[in-house]
Amino acid sequence: MKDSLVVATAALAACASTAAWQKGPLDQCSFYGSKEVGQRLWKMLSLGASKPWPDALETMTGQRQMDGSALLEYFQPPQGWLKQQNQGKQCG
Predict the structure, then answer these.
(1) CB 73 within 8 A of CB 11
(2) pLDDT in tens, 57-85
(3) Handedness of CA 75, 76, 82, 87 (dihedral sign)
(4) 18: alpha, beta or left, given left = phi > 0 and alpha = psi -120 to 50?
(5) What integer is the mean pLDDT of 18-42?
(6) Which pTM was predicted?
(7) Integer Cα distance of 92 and 67 in angstroms
(8) Is 61 helix (H, G, I), strand (E, B) or coil?
């Protein structure tokens, strides 16, 4: 599950970048109507199970390596809110 979430947020970040999303945080990204994003998604999904997942990832993101940076960016707004809510409290 956690690996698929890393891949999903990496793909979302690639879609946002392709669509030139600059209107807010990644968790609010919309690439609706972007033909270029649609073409990338189609190309990636058309691979199906015929290629290893790093090939599909590279088709979408341009990279074969995963990292957690998109995941951290996606969850930054609730993380900031949680830090604020827990300030001065002992957690854990």
Answers:
(1) no
(2) 888 888 888 788 888 989 998 999 999 99
(3) positive
(4) alpha
(5) 87
(6) 0.71
(7) 26
(8) helix
